[in-house]
Fold these 4 entries.
Entry 1:
Amino acid sequence: NISKVRWPEDYTFPATIEGRGRDFKAAWFIANEIGVSSIPVSEFYCEEHVGIGENYARFAFCKDLDTLRRAGERLQRLREYLV
């Protein structure tokens, strides 16, 4: 659940995700500022139900243990952006 992630109000997102859901912005922010990639969950829904996934991000764990440990360490930095 990414509903508590807050990025700075003046944070700039690329034009390709303007107009997309909150999950796209959170995924972009987490990837660029924290260094861990995720998948916006709303991408898996039809347009009618896209809002269901807007507060979620999907993380894949198909990596070796060292990579997963580093991702866990990086995700700790996300705490400063939680409300």
Entry 2:
Amino acid sequence: LVASSSLLLLTVGGVVEREKGRAFALCDGGAMSLSPLLLSEHHAVLVANKNGNGPKKRYDIVGNLPTPLDVVSLGRELLALSVGDIIAVMDVGAYFTSLGNNFAGPRPAIVMIENGSTNIIRRRETCEDLVFRDAGFTAMLEWSR
């Protein structure tokens, strides 16, 4: 019911060119932002802040974890990327929010678009959210202020 109504937006934080023309788009979200089920599926990927015209290049889209497992998509032909560009992973579906996790950091906000208006339906997690339920965190937080 919601597969085609959900997408993941990633911000490009860096572009790295490697040997033999291989290029990496380093993003603020990665495999941990997605359901494990999505990593084996093929999803359309596009540069959301560009109009579709211009030179193209093949990129491996990766997250910010220091592991070769943090991959969103490999070998995607996209418009030439720059820092700050927004990559859209389309049709991430029903399991995107329920199976995504915060292993690599706070989860992103979820925004609903309806009739041209946007509403935050789940706020972005903070670092405090990640440790709030841990014993002693509240006392430690008060002490540090």
Entry 3:
Amino acid sequence: MTEFATAEVILTLMVPPAHETDMVDWLMARAEAPGFFSFAGRGHGEAPSTMTVREQVAGRREGVAFQLLCPAERAHNLLAGLEQDFAGTGLRYWLLPVLGSGRL
């Protein structure tokens, strides 16, 4: 395991299900994203005005989460590309610092 203090981050992307395939294709085409995880996700607690009636009744918004472990600079480069190519799609993201990583 690496020591605490890396310049790596976890970039999490929450994508509406309608854009899942587009996101997979987009990430697979980027050298900055040599590997990533994807899994089903559900958003709870969204402002009702941003949810469809179906989502309000269910109490959640369906989505697909993508996670990448990468250097912070690479994550910012990916975000710049995403901002251009996925503007207006409802994509949400967040970055988390990584204290350590490795293989066991």
Entry 4:
Amino acid sequence: MDFLKLRAVNFLTLGDTGDMLLKDRGLIAIMGENKDDSSAKSNGSGKSSIADALCWALFGATARGESGDSIINRKAKKNTYAAVTVQDGESIYEIRRHRKDKQFKNGTTITVWNPADHYFNGGGGERIEKGTEKEIQAQINEIVGCTYEVFKAAIYAGQEDMPDLPKMTDKPLKMLIEKAAGIERLEKAYEIAGKKRDAAVAAVESSKKQIENAEAHIVNWKVSLQQAEQQHAQFEAGRPDVQKGWVERQEAIADAMRKNFTTYQNMKEPELIAERDLLQAQLADHNKLLQQRDALIRDENNARSELRVAQVELGKMRNKVVTLTDAIKNAPEAMSKPCGECGKPHTPDELDTFITHQKTKGAEVATEYQAKRSEVEALEAKVTAAGKAVSDYAATIPDVSAVSARVAELNSHISSAQHLKSVLQQQKTEHDRCATQAAAALTAVNPHQSAVDMGRQQIDALEKQVADIKAAQAPLLQAAEVAESVVKVFGPAGVRAQILDTVTPFLNDRTSDYLSALSDGNISAVWSTLASTTKGEAREKFHIDVENSEGADNFGGLSGGEKRKVRLATMLALQDLVASRAAKPISLWVGDEIDDALDNSGLERLMTVLEQKAREKGTVLIISHESLSDWCDQTATVTKSGGVSTVSGALCHA
């Protein structure tokens, strides 16, 4: 993992630094000049802002914990960003964090160029940041290969925030070493391996469950098959009895048929039908006579109807004659009264005229009455004659009641005979069916055969299914075993433990080298992952034992300068671990005013160590308020003027 360049705009005291090149730069001393404060030479110039910009761009906070709007340049008040470009293999990433930016607001962007030639040839990159800042930070940690804590402990020794590794307790020191060694990747691999192991075990358990279910079905089907086979055997054994039953039923029906047939023959149905037909012919002739009689009765009824009508009309005419006679008789009295319409009295002439008129009408009605009376008398004679004709004709019709009774009797006998004949036909049908069933009793398909066949087919299919599952289970079992082995490999007692076993000697070697250079070997700092309990038992415990052969026997007893040397040595050793790890090695180290509390001899030794480290690892940046030009060939200067700091010197050019 190489840091290519860094740029900060409106960040803390910095204005626009331009691109500051970081790859393979060797040892560079960063010094400052504060033109805004005559009481300070370099303090407050913004030297530390360069390292803080790098830390903030990657993790959203400086080494001293500054974040949010507090990192915005007080003069610019907006449009702040820090961008760092890194190269990981064939991929180049630009991580750019903004604050109060006009376009990106407070967002963070990640742009990738793959392959790297696209970047160096001026090609466009692809934005890959995810949705939330939390997700984006996880992406950045993955790209850089370390967390904020590891960065501060192994890469960036911040001003007033140098990690005090010798004083760290077990848990934070263990976490720091594991992250520095890249063991968190093993934890992720352990998690993935665990999921794969669980999936493999689940697949095995699923196959076992399938086998159990199939075998349970086999047991059930075998029980069903046994029952079906028993029923099948019982049916086969019962065929003769079934045939015998049908034969016996057929014979019983035949006996009944013979008896019924004899009875039927004795009924002599044809003779009964012939006699009935003859008598019915006689009744048909008698019906013709009755029809003629009925015609005469209808004539009599019609004559009577005409007579009634004529008699009614005659009565009406008689009433008219009476009315006219009364009117003539009462005319003088009626005409003596005034006219009912005009009130005038009637004259004698009017009386004569009225009487004459009434007599004329009376004569007309009397004539009509006599004619109607003659008609009534004629109709009365007609009715009498019609009634006599009916009586005379009825006397000639013979009595056939005995014939009708005989016909009814014959119909009853014929119906009984026909019913018996129907019974014979039904018996014939049943007789034939019994014969068919008796013949088929020994050859009919066994009704339980299908159940037997189905049971055998299901058992065969299930047994094949079990065999197939067991065959497929073998690779599943093997995969589960392999997955379990992988879990053990990536587990706490696996590769992780082996790496820690190699990490401790590495850290001790590097720490010893640095302390030898810084203190002539008088001070020792030993990293250890084990400690003894009060019972003398060894248990895992991360700690650093410090001793000065010429002084204190623990870290707390060292002088301030000696403590700083130990802190530097352990931190540099931890950075060597980060730089040398197989995954995401980081070849950059930044120290901010780490020369405090060191005398000239200590400072000279420190710069010698850092120069050697820069040659081996790539780039070492030393931020100091002291002039380090005597020990550093390359220097960069941060100058603050008018509330804004600018960068010049070695960082601004290759």
